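[job 0412] stage=complex_fold ligand=cytidine-5'-monophosphate status=START
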Amino acid sequence: MKRGKEYIVFPLDVDNADAAKRLVERLCGHVGMFKVGLELFIRTGPALVQWIKDQAAAGIFLDLKLHDIPATVERAMRGIAELAVDLTTVHCGESQTMLSAAVKGSQGKVKVLGVTVLTSVSGADLKAAGYPDAVAADVTALVFHKATMAKTAGCAGVVCSGHEAAAIKTKLGKAFLTVTPGIRPAWSEGKKDDQQRVMTPAQAVALGADYLVIGRPIRDAADPVEAARRIAEEIEQGAMPRA
Ligand code: C5P
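[job 0412] stage=complex_fold status=DONE, emitting C-alpha cells
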C-alpha cells in the first residue's frame, strides 16, 4: 500500500543548486518526490537532476511544460527520457499530434503528464485569448476535453486541480494519473498564498489524486520535516485510497 509520504511531491522552487540541495538533504525520506521546474532547471540543468538521483531515495518530477511543434517536442522529450526522471509535463495545448510526439519521444522511459488548463488561467483570460463564450464560461469542461486528448495520445495522466481529480478518474480510468497542486493542510487553512481553490491533502487523496504538489506549507513551516510528517499522517488517517 502506498504510504502517506509517497503522495507528497515537494517543488524545489528556488533559483540555485545550493538552496535546492539543502532542501533535498533536509526533506529526503519525508516526501515521495522532488519537483524541478523551469526556474531551477534553467540555472542548474541536468547536473542537479543527476545529483538528486545520486543522493536521494526519492522520485523526480521534471516539470518543464513543453509546448512547441511536434518534432521539437519529440526531440526534447528524448533528452528528458535520457535523464531517467519519473514524471514530466507537456502542455495539452491545441494539438493532439504534439501530445503524441511527446509520448513517442518519452520512449516509455518517463511518464508524460498533460497540463490541461493552468490554474492561473480564468474564463476571462480564455475569452480574451479568442475562445468562444461557451468555452470561457466552463473551464472545467475544457479541462476534461484536454485530459481526454492527453489520454488519447497515450499520456500517463494530467496535472489538474483536486476538484477535477474524481471526475477525471471516473471518465478516463483509475490508472490515469492525476497530479494536483493547490493543496493546503487543515492546520494551514486560511493561508492560501496565490492558490485560488485549495483543499487538504486527505481530501485530494480521497478524490483520487495520485500525487500532491505541496510547496509553501512545508517550505515555510517553522519545521519543514515536521510539516511533511504531519501531512503524511493526515493522508494516512484521513483517506487511504481505493486499492
Ligand atoms: O504549494 P505551493 O502553492 O507552494 O506550490 C507551488 C508549486 O505548485 C509550484 O512549483 C508550481 O509550479 C506548482 N503548480 C503547478 N501547477 C499549477 C499550480 C502550481 O504545478 N496549476
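The radius of gyration is 17 Å.
[job 0412] exit 0
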